[in-house]
Amino acid sequence: MSNKIYHTLSLFDKWVQENNNLVNKWKQQEGGGDTLSRDQSQTHLKWCTSEFETLLRKIQGVPPLADHTQLEVSVVYNACVCFTAQSQFTEAELLLKQATERALQMAGNFPVASDPPVLWRTVLKSVENTALNSCVLYLLCLQWAIWLATCQLKMIEEFQEELTSLVETLPDGVWDDRRSKARGKSFDISLLVMEPRRLVELLQICTSIAQGAERLSEGHSSEALSGLQIASSLPAPRILVAYTHFLSGSCLAHMSRPQMALQCYRKALETDFRCVCALYQSMLIYRQLGNTQAEIQALHLLHSTRMLPSATEPALACTHLLSPSSLLRSQSLSSLLSVPSALSVLHNLALKCVLHGRVSEGVEHYLDLLAAFHSEDHQVHAEVPPLPRLTELYLEAGTALLMAQRPADCMALCDEVISTTLELLPEKLILEELEQRNEIRDVSVEGEDRVAMLLWTGAAYLLQGHCQTHLKDWKQAVIHYTRCINLLMKVWFKKRGFQPQIPSADMIVKEGTYLSVLQKLKGLSLAGRGISFTQTDQLKEALRDLQLSLQAFPECVGAGLWCGEVLWRLGRRRMAAAHWEKTWTFSAQSSLESLPVYLQEPQSGPSLDSTELRHRIQELGPI
Amino acid sequence: MEGRCAVETLAEFGFSGTSCTPKVKSGFGIYVFLCMGSDEVYVFNTQERKLTAVLQFPGLVTDLVESPDKQLLYVSCRSGVYCVSLSFLLSRAQSSLANTSSCLAELKVSSEFLVVGEEGVLSLLLIDSVLLMLSQTDVSWVLSLYKTPKQTQSSSYEMLSSFTLPLVSAFVHEDELKTRMRRRPVLICVFHGQTASPPFSSTSSAEAASPVSHFHLKPVLFKRLFGIDTALIKSPVILCGLPDGRLCFLPLRLPGSRLRVLHSLEQPVVFIGASVVMKTGPEHAQCLVAVGELGRVLLIKMDKGGSEGECSRAGFTEGCVPGPVVCGCVDKRHLYYSTGSDLLALDLSKGSSGIEGQECGEETSAALQSPTSLNVCRVISLAQPTCSPAGEVQLLGLSIRGQLQRITLPVWRKDARMSKLPQGRCSARDLLSAIGDVYERASVLKTSIKSKNQTLRHLNQVLNISFLLLASTREEHFPIQEKPIRCHAMTKWSRLLQKDSLNLTCVLDNSSPYVLERGWTLTIAAFPLSCSPSAGGESSSTNFSFQFCNLHPGETLEVSLPLAAAGDTYFPVTINCSLTFSVTSLLGEEEVASFTGLQSGCISLPLNTLTVDWLHVLQVKSSTASHKNTTSQPNNITTADTIQAFVRSHRIWCSGRGDGGGGGASALKQEQYSACVRVSSELLRDTLVLKSSDLDPQEPMLAPHNLCISLLDWMLSDSLGGVKMGHRGDEIALSSPVVHAQGPNGDTVKLTAKEVNIGEESMAKESLSAIEVRVESSSVAAVCGLHHAVLHRVQTLLQRAPKRPASTKTVQSLGLRQALQRAECLLQQIQQSRISAAFGVGESTRQMTHSFLSVYRELRENPLLII
């Protein structure tokens, strides 16, 4: 009986053993982490946390004794790490507060202040140069982690000094001395779930990144830059180093040094290819610089990386207990790191290609995009930024197809749009004054924008007219243009206090409103019909249409030139010359980017050679 | 009204009411799958008219869906979604048929068939190769999409995405929802009508009919409801009807789409479907129909042209049919629904078959008001109707009794009236069967009303008793003796097979004016205050329950139960008496199961609490015997006991020697522990005399000696707190103030009462006469227990003492202070030894025990007097 008594361990040893068992179990699980699903490891983590907490409650049941500080702090550390990994910060902070208060009691002081910063300062002061110091420093580490994860960067700045000294003192801390001293007795040391040294390193770089992002969003780019450059040389996981480079690049971009920014982005990508945001930001800089080819190249790369299977997993996911993603949660950082979805990138790419002369490539991308929508296993995600409406995508794709000399395919796409919308179009529509895009929309009960729908259908008819023009089937072209014009005539415009009327040319039209789109459509379709009439020698009709077109949309180049041509043919040569002269003064593409691609003047129709026209004017001679 | 349906019972399955709506589904041509809310799925072959197989799943089956092109059956149950292939099922069914003589193949579906381990899936839907599952979490509805593998063999079900819709507090009250059957959310898929060929019919021409939950909607309506983007890419749209009444939709392939609410029925959605409405017309459905549980019917169809250039728009027409609606289905023109007592048909084409009139909405709602009764009752689930070549519509229904029925509807004529029945004989048979049905229904109703009345009367009694008991527990001051229904008890030692055991006889006394009827149970729970170390530190309670039939006012019920065997020392034991009423006895199993609000269906009402302490369990020896040999064991103890006693005494002696302290002399003798309580004799005189004078008024004032005896007598015999010592009834009163007795663990104890005078050493002016009750025994446990019991008795004595002006005698203030100091000192000692014990430093366990023992003994030596 008495033998048994001597062999049973004292409670203290039992606690140490319990702690070590838990830590070992965790490490084992972490080692074989690949086989377990995320859910399973989450439940395991939860279990571990509760076990540590119960153990801690037992230990804290006895009055604070200096001999057992190491054990107690280890358990507090482990429990807090587990809590923080699960984002249960209030629980972790409570534990920390209790532990520091007990440390104060051990040091012979009694806690007075409940405010965390004050408490920490008192604790740090009172345990200075005592054996307790290293233990308290470990707790400070965790406080740091919590501040970081809850984005309390102000606090971290306040404690900057202590934290830097923490980084310096930790490697040769007293803890390790004890370890080496007590190496003989194995169960005397309590193990930790995460090496404090590694935690501090992680905290250091994550703090730099978070601070950098915060300063950058506040507009202090140069300050942020210096901090980030120091951080980039710290030992850390690759992806975090890549982030420091990326953020430096963003700072430089803010300081309008695009070339240096590009260098930084390149470095970030070289460090870790998963840093896709660097690629995206480079693309934006190229766009800003007007380097279209490079922009398209970057979009290409971006799209192919987004299509990789690994792209869906977050780059920060980590099998370790405290992953960087759980520490980096600030809003400003996540907005910097965000990258649009694969579909959105693909659309951008296609549009860029089409706008900048790489039509065949653009067409391919558009077709890929449309195929993606029709494919069965296409994943439905919330898109940020949202893609344009599918109808618009169809129309853009149709335009691209027409540009690529595939009028039949363009016709088919337009047919689809028309067949979808046709039955839903209203007989008459009244546009209110002061209506702006995204402001008040005429949304019917079923949630469709009826004006937009009408304009889409009009655009589809217009495109079909263009296709027929391209095929030189003038009769058909006139039919389609007429359909478009008829449709557009259904829209009435209502000024405040007046009766609804058909919009006339003398109205001031704001860019980007429905009214501007309407007028543009009207101008283009009338011009198209006028040009078609000229081809069939119906000059009177042609002149009427072309002049109406110029009324609706005065900057229409085609209408201007052809109007002159018709006048010339009708023998009114002076007027014709005046028309031509006036048209040449139009800035060729005044609003290329702001208007949808399908509302731009077709390049494929019958054209007039301007040198020949100038020649004619010269022949006409001065008056 | 005009026509009658031919109802043909195909098979009967036992049906037990459960928490989930049953489901009938026909699939793979000739098979019908039934799940009735248990963990089984029945596969019924309609051609051979027999049950092909029974699939048993590891949990409650919530929904099933079949994949016709791959011949797979997906079944969702509590632990996840399982996938069983039809060929496998049939081969297994055949082989098991060959092996066993039984005609039924029961197949256990194990976890190897588990394809998606998502828990709590309520509804399933399969669209092409995408499997959708709807489940409910605490805060939201979750719709998850999984991609099914191309090959049947591979088992990778990749999650595509998931959508959530926050829960809203249900329109129907929460409790009400709980009590009802849990309704499964309805999931259907709507295709754009222009899709050239439905994806299913292209593969297998024989089963060209698309699945029940897939509808092709008229393009205009589709566009109007779900937007032109959805129509442009011809994305299938999922419509889901939730138990909170919301109708939600989700375009499956539209980027950035989310679950959106289309409409709310404000009552649980029972059914969603689409109907062509027109008798001859395009294949696409013209009308979406949703039916709520309370009879609200929503029709969504295109309204033809409004005023001044308005284009056509979708019209939502709501109407009400007499509810409740249990299940429903649609065919090309009709909506069929069952109210449980009748099957009804609504002609949806009534409104729109006419000219495209402006008031078609009103017409439709008018049509809703005149459903046609089909005279089929008790249908709780319907499968999609089929149309035979002859134009007869056949419905497959499941009745509440578990009958699978084929209901053949009479042929509808062009004027929307029932056709005349072909033969008179047939009509007579049908009439007879209809009469039979009605008679059966009536008789069932009659008996149910009768039993409900009975139940109500019973419940009234139960309620009365409950109120009575609750009132008496609420008023704490209500003395036990005055409680209308109470328990009292008697302890008794008995000897069986040479083992002593203590029996407790409990008497339930019903002095209330109500009858305790069937369904009541007397529950007695005994909790030992402390417990043996071998029990692992868990305090073990023993429960006894006694059912009884009728206990009329004034009657008593006597039950007896074993409380402890000899050797058990865990006294005092608290006896909790309560009356339990089980609703099951009133309602029966299945009805109780539907009242999920009642936990376990029991009402428990506490009666009173009795305490059996050491004084109750003493076996007092007759005074003569104890005079003869006070030290030796009683005569009736067997040799085994003697040896045990010897061993025990020896052990104590050994430990006494090992003590090593100054107790060498006492160690030779058996160590005696003792404790005493001092009570002022004045108090005793007041209370005991008061009591005894009740019994015997002419008895003179008690002498001090008599006082001692009567104190002991009172302690041993009084029915304190309702418990009495049973064996003392025949014995004569005590003759000396010394009592020898045997405790429950076999130790002898001695109780002495003597008069002492206190106050000599104190500075008090006058001494105080008191009675000292001393407990002595060689067993620590016995001394502790008895001391506790004696104190407890004195406590009640004090409560009983008549109110007097405060005693003029000075309280021994000095003694009090000393006692307090001593107690503080002891407390410190205890804390010290506990901390050192915790860290295992310093003393050994035995030393510790000794220190605790000494502290305890000092605590017992309380010199204070109870006045």
Automatic annotation (TrEMBL), chain A:
GO biological processes: interstrand cross-link repair
Superkingdom: Eukaryota
Gene Ontology cellular-component terms listed: Fanconi anaemia nuclear complex
Name of this chain's protein: FA complementation group G
Source organism per UniProt: Monopterus albus (Swamp eel)
Lineage: Eukaryota, Metazoa, Chordata, Craniata, Vertebrata
